Amino acid sequence: MKFHDLNIRGQYFGNDLKLVKEASRFGWDYVNLNYYPEYFKRALDYKSDLIDKINDFENPIEINMGLNIVKAKNPNEVRKLVNKYRNKTSYLSVLGGDLKINRGVCENIKIDVLSRPYYKRHDSGMNHVLAKEAVKNNVAIELCFRDILNQHLKYRANVIASFKEILKFHRKFKFPIILTTDSKSLYDMRSTRDIVAVFKCIGFTNEEIYNGFCKYPQEIRDFNKDRKNMVIKGVKVIEGATDFTDVYKNDEDSKDFEDMFCDNLEESDSMDLSDIDDGGLEELNNLDDIDFEDLKGDFDE
Amino acid sequence: MSKLKILPPTLRITNHYLILDVKSEVSLDKDDMVPPIWDACIRFWGECETSNFNLWVMRHYLVEECGGFMNYKTILRCQSGYEEKVRAGLATLTRYNHNKIAISTIGIAGTIKSAIDKFIEVE
Question: pTM, whole model, 2 decimals?
Fold first, then answer.
């Protein structure tokens, strides 16, 4: 099993390096450093240096950089920011909490993840309507371990209750759930087995934990690799295809296609044209009857 | 005070040993480790469930002191069958006495000796 943590809070080079090192020590295989939009460009500048340093580790891990939109006040603002940054990053998440934003995010196919829909709420921030929209638009819901970690007593119980409610919707509607740590400092980092133990105690099954840490994050990564080629939903540009027949994997398929195409041509050649209704073409044989000026006027119009 | 007679092996509780990686802002000795561990377990699991854990701090080592925090390795005894619950409880600890602390379980061993051999002496 490959453990993915799709949300580690990136800040600056030194801190990011420390976090990735600790993640590597604790058994994570893939880490996604998330930045606020204003710091994202700066982070991309030192990405290659960071990867070089990580390759020197005892257990090198994969990293990527993503974007976390947190300051949007309404769905319209979210939409504008998403359109602005979608092509610049391979991972885009939006912080939830506000019901309108939760809904707007679930309805937007360009967004990968709705992060913490329960944020600063007394309820889970999800309902059956949002769950259906999330399924339809393939938006994953993110549950952060740090929310359990940094809350105490009543508030921690509230967060756990929200997790359970979201899990209930997930079991019914099957929208993707991803589990993350949202680590900001070394004190937030935990080993993979510890995180699994906590989520098991909350009520997640082994399969759900596997999906949350491995399957759905992997799907998001794979989907985003192809995202730039997707024109609209269901239509994808296949790179390197110069001819339509190139998309066929083997010769047999292309042969079938050619045979079918040639057969159709032969059929059309062998047709008896006298059977076709000419739609009164004979009447037009006499060109003197046509008023060309009138026709020209029609074309101009 | 007279001591109780030692129980026969069949009636003894079987234990496992968790190896903890502890990061702390302040220095901690072996006795200082006890309250945060109990506090974390009781907060997360409650008194009734924690009574089954049979927790005891066996060993405590300072590994390194760098970057503004101390890194310790601790061997904690717990009743076999409750390892996952204990590690979940310990993972939820962030602060104790207004000082930052992080406990992560890096291994489980059947005896103290094997715990030291596998996880402490390597370092």
Answer: 0.82
* Tokens at A36, concatenated: 């606020």
Q: Which of A21, A191, A202 to mutate to test the interface with B (most CBs of B within 10 A)?
A: A191
- The tokens for A21 are 């090192």
B68 touches chain A (CB under 8 A): no
Contact A227, A220 (CB under 8 A): no
pLDDT reported for residue A250? 53
Mean pLDDT per 10-residue segment, chain A (301 residues): 93 93 93 94 93 89 94 92 92 94 94 95 94 95 95 94 96 96 93 95 95 95 85 79 59 52 52 49 56 69 61
Q: At A124, is the secondary structure helix, strand, or coil?
A: coil
Specify the pLDDT at position B31: 95
Half-sphere exposure of residue B42: CA atoms within 13 angstroms, side-chain side: 9
d(CA B24, CA A21): 18
Residues forming a β-bridge with B95: B100
**Mutation target among A194, A196, A204, A209 for the B interface, most CBs of B within 10 A:** A194
What pLDDT is stored for residue A268 in this prediction?
Answer: 47
ipTM above 0.85, yes or no: yes
Q: Do the beta carbons of residue A51 and residue A44 sit within 8 Å? A: no
Residue B114 is which amino acid?
A: S
Cα dist. B5→A299, B8, B15 in Å?
113, 9, 19
Q: What is the DSSP string of A178-247?
A: EEE--B-SGGG---HHHHHHHHHHHT--HHHHHIIIIIHHHHHHHHHHHGGGEEETTEE--TT--SGGGG
Residues contacting A274, CB < 8 A, separation 6+:
none
CA–CA dist B40, B31 (Å, integer): 16
Nearest-by-CA chain A residue for B88 = A198
Spatial contact of A77 and A102, defined as CB atoms under 8 Å apart: no
**What is the spatial distance between Cα B48 and Cα A107, in angstroms, rounded to a whole number?**
45
Residue A124 backbone dihedrals phi, psi, to 5 degrees? -80, -15
Q: How many Å apart are CA A165 and CA A173, to the nearest integer? A: 12
Q: Is B42 on the interface with A (CB under 8 A)?
A: no
Q: Name every residue whose Cβ is closer than 8 Å to that of residue A69 and which is 6 or more positions away in sequence.
A: A37, A78, A81, A82, A85, A92, A93, A94, A95
B45-74 residue pLDDT tens:
999 999 999 999 999 999 999 878 999 999
